[in-house]
Amino acid sequence: MSKLPAKIRKRLKKEAETWDASIGHENPQKVGELLEKAELFLANRPPKQPVSLRIDPFDVSMAKRIARRKGIPFTQLMSMWLHEKIEQEKGQVNL
Fold first, then answer.
1. CA–CA gap between residue 5 and residue 13 (Å, rounded)
2. How far from each other are the two terminal CA atoms of the chain, in whole angstroms?
3. What torsion, rounded to 10 degrees, do the Cα atoms 43, 49, 53, 58 define?
4. Which residues are CB-contacts of 83 (< 8 A; sequence separation ≥ 6)?
5. How many angstroms separate the CA atoms of 47 and 18, rounded?
6. pLDDT digits (tens, 9 = 90+) for 66-94
7. At how many degrees (to 10) do helices 6-23 and 28-37 cross?
8. 3-state secondary structure at position 6
9. With a threshold of 0.90, does the pTM exceed it?
10. Backbone CA torsion sign across 2, 7, 8, 12
């Protein structure tokens, strides 16, 4: 599920299609020039809220091992797991 509103996603998709159509006829040098002139898209998101939890040391250790194997920080892994579980539960519960 995208975090961008549908109106913005639709506008960005249309803009991407326009770019694809116009760039298709250009040579690589011209494409490079066009990309240099393109504006950077920034999506403003609310700041994340820090949370404190008491977790079993063994679980923390295992999460760190799994995160290291995946090449991401363990706090990011735990955040991803929490988000996935919330999305799963949200579909099952009438809120």
1. 12
2. 17
3. 30
4. none
5. 33
6. 999 999 999 999 999 999 999 999 887 76
7. 150
8. helix
9. no
10. positive
